[in-house]
Amino acid sequence: MEIRQLEALVGIAENGTFSSAAEALGTVQSNISSRVARLEAELGTELVNRSTGTLTESGAIVVERARRILIELRAIASDVSELNADIRGQVTLGMIGTAGRWIVPLLLETLRERYANINLRISEGTNSALEPRLINGQLDLAVLAWPVMAEELADVDLFTEDLVVIASRRHELAQYQGPLPFSVLATHEILLPMRGTPIRREIDEAARAAGIELEPLIELDGLRTIASMTFDGHGPSILPATMLSPHLRAHFVALPIENIAKRRVVLASRRFGFPAAPVRAIHALLVDVVANATNVPDGVYLPTPSKQ
Question: What pLDDT digit, counting tens, does each position of 38-59 carry?
């Protein structure tokens, strides 16, 4: 079994076709086909269904382990470079969109100073999209909304943020004095995140505690889409306070909600295995730049430093 054979199979899994895998790996399609064929012959089973181009059940099992093997191989060179105080390598970081707005600029500024030879790639998405990619090794780390559901992942707190109603300043809700009770929200059509997402669970738990069941105007899996619909005039929404950018505050307002918990945002990593030096460096750097940030958005709260 050769590394190139495993790379070919993972390339097909991640790019969809033999030709796309060849392009991603900088080779030709015939090489990908022959490497996969030799791997199938050694294992005595079909790994890719040639008629559909999809992985077989055996192929999926091999890909899952192959990803771990390739991660460890990449980590060897990175760990050796650490001994020379010259950490280099690639780190792929997943991040929910609300966090990326203000964390990424802080991270990149410090990254240039401390780890100029780390190539950082950032992939934005929701918890439901990022968690599986972190588990299977496509991501090295991920900034996620708590709770992180997968048992294979561990997390550390980064910050908390207010959940608010974002509404046009001309909307009836904007005239309400004080935190909005759920009894008032229930009388309006509200744009809400999809059921089952971490933020929706926070909203529903607070509403049920108030004896209210919210009936959303529409449910969407994607906070940016929800915010865009509010800003386009389709109605108020319940979102993290960071979704209301400063340049929009002339026309929209973030209204506090009565008796609702703040949303926790965490940095997640795989619970098992030893991460490569660049991954450990980015993990520590990200925790550090957030904890020491001096200019955080309205509605964001950093953890209180623990006393030694």
Answer: 999 999 999 999 888 889 999 9
Q: How far, in Å, CA of 225 to CA of 230, rounded?
A: 9
State which of 16, 44, 77 marks the end of a domain.
Answer: 77
> For residue 86, how many C-alpha atoms fall within 13 Å in the half-sphere facing its CB?
4
Q: Is the peptide bond before 147 cis (omega within 30 degrees of 0)?
A: yes
pLDDT tens digit string along 98-112?
888 889 998 988 998
Query: Look-up: residue for tokens 């509010």?
Result: 230
Single-letter residue type at 171? H
Say whether pTM exceeds 0.85.
no
Phi, psi of 291, deg, nearest 5: -60, -30
- Which domain, by its residues, includes 125? 87-160+264-301
Task: Give CA separation, 287 vs 40, 253, 276, 280, in Å.
Answer: 43, 30, 17, 11
